[in-house]
Inverse folding.
């Protein structure tokens, strides 16, 4: 883990480096910078570290000047003898605030906090990437242009583009069209999902596959779900589960 220390007292900087290396096996302290000026110059010439430990009152000003004048996206653990800067610290990528003299147990807790936050956000990023990959894979398949539906004793070919949504209830699959008609189809929703254009259609739930062209609006719903309203009345509400929300929004915006 690449770490940068900003500390104007040489002895305190070395002591902090020792504690960090003791608590993080993979720690690589890139530098110990003593001033606002030296830190600004360092950030101009180097890539960002993974974590910054920073004092606040430096020899030539407050370290907040560094973070106001440089785009810092990595987390910062502030180490200072003063507690009056806590609010501003947490407004500047700060994830923790340690008072000097630094207690090693509290330092260890701060490092654990960083590790948990890092793990969480990496997990969220992985989920987003996975959702985008699935949407891209789906978009690449053009899907069928015509399907066969049943009406009374007839088998009728209809254009997939005219289908607003498919609805499943008690094992029966119904097809609702833009002409206001309803037909039956002898396929499951899973079978239809594999045959339809995944750019045009989305399996919203175990009851619905919807055409993007029929979506009127999307609203927040209980339990962090989404309520999809379409251009015609539906047999029941079309609800996107919390788990599928990200994938649905990526699909809708693609």
């Amino acid at each position: 883990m690449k770490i940068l220390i900003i500390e104007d007292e040489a002895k305190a900087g070395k002591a902090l480096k020792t504690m960090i290396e003791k608590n993080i096996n993979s720690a690589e302290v890139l530098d110990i910078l003593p001033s606002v000026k030296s830190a600004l110059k360092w950030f101009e010439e180097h890539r960002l570290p993974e974590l910054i430990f920073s004092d606040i009152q430096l020899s030539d000003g407050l370290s907040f000047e560094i973070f106001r004048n440089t785009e810092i996206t990595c987390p910062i653990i502030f180490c200072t003898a003063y507690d009056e800067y806590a609010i501003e610290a947490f407004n500047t990528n700060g994830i923790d605030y340690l008072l000097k003299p630094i207690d090693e147990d509290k330092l260890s807790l701060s490092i654990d906090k960083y590790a948990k936050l890092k793990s969480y956000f990496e997990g969220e990023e992985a989920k987003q990437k996975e959702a985008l990959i699935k949407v891209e894979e789906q978009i690449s398949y053009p899907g069928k242009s015509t399907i066969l539906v049943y009406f009374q004793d007839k088998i009728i070919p209809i254009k997939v583009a005219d289908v607003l949504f498919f609805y499943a209830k008690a094992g029966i699959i119904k097809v609702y069209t833009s002409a206001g008609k309803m037909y039956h189809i002898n396929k499951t929703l899973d079978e239809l999902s594999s045959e339809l254009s995944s750019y045009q259609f989305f399996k919203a739930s175990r009851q619905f596959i919807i055409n993007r062209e029929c979506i009127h609006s999307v609203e927040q719903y209980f339990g962090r779900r989404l309520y999809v309203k379409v251009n015609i009345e539906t047999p029941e509400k079309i609800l996107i589960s919390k788990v599928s929300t990200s994938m649905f929004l990526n699909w809708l915006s693609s």
Summary: The chain has two domains: 2-130, 146-253.
